[in-house]
Design a protein that fits this description.
It contains ten helices and ten strands. By secondary structure, it is an alpha/beta fold. The strands form three sheets. Strands 6-7-5-8-9-10 form a six-stranded mixed β-sheet, sandwiched between helices. A two-stranded parallel ribbon has the order 1-4.
Length: about 350
């Protein structure tokens, strides 16, 4: 019987060794080496935040910058860009700050492509799941300097490939609401990292468990076994689902209380958003008791439930967030890479 070693880092992950993952970006700035050196020197002074430390925090206003982190490509988001976005204006945005930020390190305002690529060199990272997962892919692609215009007719379940880090690594974005194509993506791309989410397309607890047990988990178990045989350092990540925010147009800044947001969602139930917290816990328990050799829980719930202000200009969409302001999942992806490298 195979020895199981379930390592859960719910963005609570304490660090599991990953070999290098992603890239040396085509358009890395010429001073990236000095920037990376400064980041490394700062990291030596503070240990990396564990994932348990990272999810305990608040949103604080960051420093003003000369320009936004990137300019979203027209048409790549159903609700377009953030309200009032001016690509030529100076930039200031909210940043996620862990409570223990004075004692632990988390890069919360930018992606250093040189650092990212040193950790992810010659690797393939898949981000697959709901439309929020696809937005995660778009954000990370942009932050790594790969703005690729989408085709005029975008399919309902698009597959996009970004070649990053001087073309030596790949970032795969697959919109797959019900995770029906996990096996296909594994077979086609042989990934080193898989970040999955079943998402906001609600089904009953019974249907969710049945699908994960019969389809998703067996594909991941087989992939993990193949990684062992090939001596690849692979990592499976499950991202929790964040509900939408009723009356989101009333908010102009982040909230401060998870409990208050949960109460608002519970008293104005829409689209089964009030059930997402329970299903996140259900999936955590299911994965913990499964035959997976390891998994990491990417817990965006306590972070983005505090962003009722982050939705796009479409008044009827209080679920999706907008670019270029919602990049927290990209910053957390880099943090995973840093933890795995220790």
């Amino acid at each position: 019987m195979r020895r199981r070693s379930i390592k859960i880092a719910s963005l609570f992950l304490l660090g599991m060794g990953i070999s290098e993952i992603i890239m040396q970006l085509k358009s890395a700035p010429q001073d990236a080496t000095s920037t990376t050196r400064e980041v490394q020197e700062d990291t030596e002074k503070r240990t990396l935040c564990t994932m348990e430390q990272l999810v305990q925090g608040k949103w604080t206003m960051g420093a003003e910058k000369d320009k936004p982190p990137y300019i979203p490509t027209p048409g790549e988001r159903q609700q377009k860009t953030c309200h009032g976005f001016d690509p030529s204006a100076r930039w200031q945005d909210w940043e996620w700050t862990p409570e223990d930020h004075s004692r632990c390190d988390f890069l919360n305002s930018d992606i250093d492509s040189n650092l990212f690529c040193s950790l992810a060199r010659n690797k393939t990272i898949v981000i697959q799941g709901d439309s929020i997962s696809f937005d995660h892919f778009l954000s990370l692609s942009h932050l790594l300097g790969v703005p690729v215009a989408p085709p005029r007719a975008v399919p309902k379940d698009p597959l996009r490939v970004s070649k990053i880090c001087n073309g030596t690594s790949m970032l795969i974005g697959k919109k797959d609401f019900h995770l029906q194509q996990v096996g296909r993506i594994i077979k086609e791309f042989h990934p080193d990292v898989m970040i999955l989410n079943r998402g906001a397309h609600y089904v009953s607890d019974e249907q969710l468990i049945q699908h994960l047990n019969s389809t998703v988990i067996p594909h991941i178990v087989n992939w993990q076994d193949e990684c062992v045989l090939e001596k690849k350092d692979c990592h499976f990540v499950w991202r929790s689902t964040v509900p939408g925010h009723p009356h989101c147009t009333q908010f102009t800044k982040p909230a401060e209380s998870v409990e208050e947001m949960e109460m608002m969602i519970a008293t104005s139930p829409q689209y089964n958003w009030d059930k997402f917290k329970g299903q996140n816990e259900l999936v955590m328990d299911l994965l913990s008791g499964s035959s997976l050799t390891a998994f990491n829980m990417f817990d965006g719930y306590p972070i983005n439930i505090l962003r009722p202000d982050l939705h796009g200009p479409a008044h009827n969409d209080c679920l999706h967030t907008c670019l270029p302001r919602d990049n927290i999942y990209s910053f957390i992806t880099l943090h995973f890479l840093r933890l795995w490298s220790e």
